[in-house]
């Protein structure tokens, strides 16, 4: 038995040395959405009966765009989740603090907006998450929470690296990707959100799009329209908390 195990180990070591890429691929396996949702590893949306939607903004903070978005959110008593890029934090600490003070939520969006395709090592993923986590702790005493990988790249390594640093991976509702980074036009962005609005949606937008204020102008349409329809704009954590309360109430019936 021991001889057999020893031979297997030698074969594995030999295969690893001669085929490192194949071993990397097997460890870096990507599963479908259902797999990660059932395990509670990645969040796309939160099905709920209440008319609640979570607006999320990636790639900031931006010294001009983000404050204007915050002004609009404040006008409609809306809360949101901002996924910040670490290398933007030092020059925009005041904006991070404003987001927190006004009841919004801060998420981690890597340090340099790195794309985690299948060939990126776990060490690189962990480093990108850790550097931003450290900046957020230093700037605003924020730790853990939500992590969103740029470009929506996810796999086992991303999930594991995020978990190890106290984060849960969160994506967005597939029917609520505004693609505002492509600058498709104010009307198109607004209609995407309004026409597809469902309870528990997580909407993807950006508070930094080069040479564009389309997201700001679209919010001027989205916020009053959905508010008139009875929707409440909440953070991702608030959405989950409401879902938890809803489930508790149903169990008590």
From TrEMBL:
<keyword id="KW-0479">Metal-binding</keyword>
<dbReference type="GO" id="GO:0016020">
    <property type="term" value="C:membrane"/>
</dbReference>
<dbReference type="InterPro" id="IPR011330">
    <property type="entry name" value="Glyco_hydro/deAcase_b/a-brl"/>
</dbReference>
<dbReference type="InterPro" id="IPR002509">
    <property type="entry name" value="NODB_dom"/>
</dbReference>
<protein>
    <submittedName>
        <fullName>Polysaccharide deacetylase family sporulation protein PdaB</fullName>
    </submittedName>
</protein>
<dbReference type="InterPro" id="IPR050248">
    <property type="entry name" value="Polysacc_deacetylase_ArnD"/>
</dbReference>
<feature type="domain" description="NodB homology">
    <location>
        <begin position="51"/>
        <end position="234"/>
    </location>
</feature>
<dbReference type="GO" id="GO:0016810">
    <property type="term" value="F:hydrolase activity, acting on carbon-nitrogen (but not peptide) bonds"/>
</dbReference>
<dbReference type="GO" id="GO:0046872">
    <property type="term" value="F:metal ion binding"/>
</dbReference>
<dbReference type="Pfam" id="PF01522">
    <property type="entry name" value="Polysacc_deac_1"/>
</dbReference>
<keyword id="KW-0378">Hydrolase</keyword>
<dbReference type="GO" id="GO:0005975">
    <property type="term" value="P:carbohydrate metabolic process"/>
</dbReference>
